[in-house]
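Study this chain:
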Amino acid sequence: MSEQNITLKMSSGIFSYRIGAIIIHSDRVLMAQNNGSPFYYSVGGRGKFGEAARDAVLREAFEETQIKFEIDRLAFIHENFCVLENEPFHELALFFIMKTNNQVAEMKSFNFIEEYSEVTLHWLPICRLGDFLIYPEFFKTELNNLSNNVKHFITKNGITYRAN
């Protein structure tokens, strides 16, 4: 298996394949934040070429928390079309709900270093997600209304809508 993340630079822009872990405990969700950034985003990262999405989310969740998780289920598919650093950007993201375990209950906060920044993990109250700048934005409402169905969202020109 290749160790390359699936981020493709193309003549028309950049395509990225992202895998996110939704880790919930005591009505809070674990979110990451780059040092100096106002935005929070889900635990996770880029899938690697030849790596199944389920394997990628387990790997990313462990790399960022040092906790071995199990997957509950796939919850969201998100297609995001935007402009980043003056480049058209197309991201396909899969978000998995993770099963909570005893180690999660003991976790307060955690810092780690990525190639681009120091990252801190934060427990944000689900009922107050509207108070934060978070990605993806639909977490603000959807994490209060989780169902057993996979929901598909598309974001274009800053507007997010449900596709199914």
Observations:
- The longest helix spans residues 53-65.
- Residues 7-162 form a domain with the Nucleoside Triphosphate Pyrophosphohydrolase fold (CATH 3.90.79.10).
- Helices lie at 53-65, 102-106, 139-142.
